Amino acid sequence: MQDRLADAMAALRSAATGHDLANLDRFGIVAPGALGVSMANLQTLAKRLGRDHDLAAALWATGVYEARMLACLVDDPARVTPEQMDAWRAGFDNWAIVDTACFKLFDRSPHAWTRIKAWAGLNDEFGRRAAFALLACLALHDKRAEDRPFLDGLVLIERAATDDRNFVKKAVNWALRAIGLRESPALKAAAIETARRLAASPDAAPRWVGKDALRALTKAARTKISET
């Protein structure tokens, strides 16, 4: 394993550029000690390495931003445990690692749904973002899921919409929009109703979440009608 890890780290350092390092600041990604490797190069390296749960654990343990991003891309979702998800979540320190873990790995884990409720009540900004980023990713990717867990998710969304921290409210908004864009008419209606209630709030954070989601969902509905 040490040889595999050393090879992966060497490949990351070889792919690093000053331009890609500067892009982290440009995109608001705070990652001290980062190397500067583009997502395209990370994905190319991940494809070459293939799925490797043990390598993913070793990469994550380095604490290096790009190594952790690569860990999310090479880990085996079937071997990810709730304990691992919680441990990695505790190490989230920027929005990009949150979203990559949720979009590329956690939403494919059989334990994904159990983590949403567990994380939705967290106090730390990126941990709470993870709950709603994961909910959004499941809304996008889990085509076989029933309506019930998403309806339960709307309750969590409404509760968390008062959190005015930037990375939380954006994930809450993302989850609301993603649920409302599923094929289920019942979910579309429930998401729009939730958005309307939030849009009518006297408080700025839920009002923004609701208005932005309502705009996206009503636009999508109009587009679908015009195409029929």
Explain this structure to me?
With 228 residues, the chain is mainly alpha-helical. The chain has 2 domains: 1-75, no CATH class; 82-228, Alpha Horseshoe (Leucine-rich Repeat Variant), CATH 1.25.10. It is 73% helix and 0% strand. It is built from 13 helices and no strands. Helix 5 (65-74) runs parallel beside helix 7. The longest helix is centred in the last third of the chain and has 24 residues, at 204-227. The model has no long low-confidence stretch (mean pLDDT 95).
Layout of strands and helices, then pairs:
Layout: H1 2-15, H2 18-26, H3 39-49, H4 53-61, H5 65-74, H6 82-90, H7 95-104, H8 112-120, H9 125-141, H10 147-160, H11 166-180, H12 185-199, H13 204-227
Short description:
With 228 residues, this protein is mainly alpha-helical. The chain is built from 13 helices and no strands.
Mean pLDDT: 95
Radius of gyration: 19 Å
Query: How many separate domains?
Result: 2
Bulk shape: globular
How far the N terminus sits from the C terminus, by CA atoms, comes to 55 Å
Annotated CATH topology of the largest domain: Leucine-rich Repeat Variant
Question: Which key phrases capture this entry?
Answer:
228 residues; mainly alpha; Leucine-rich Repeat Variant; 2 domains; 73% helix
